[in-house]
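User: Hey, quick favor. My workstation is busy. Could you predict this chain's structure for me?
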Amino acid sequence: MMTNEPNNDNRYLDDDNSCPQYNSLNDIRLRKEALRKSIEADDKKIKTLWNSLFTKPDAFKKDASRGKRLQSMMSIGMGAFDGALLAWKLYRKFKKKK
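Assistant: No problem, here it is.
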């Protein structure tokens, strides 16, 4: 796409809620392209973060040391205990009184 305008795609990426002014169809095309690039970049970030949620922790790998495994078991155990304690406290707070 050949244009006489300078290549300034960032002017079409406004974060405020104002409506951008378009003076030609080319302005609309440039805005559309800039938004498409932004959406693709965000999609790539989301995919990376989503995939990182489901990676195997270091403690469960075959070459993990005993210390890492013990630390992982302690962390999981304390998390489970903390959850159970919170559930018990909430149960006692909101149970119906006779």
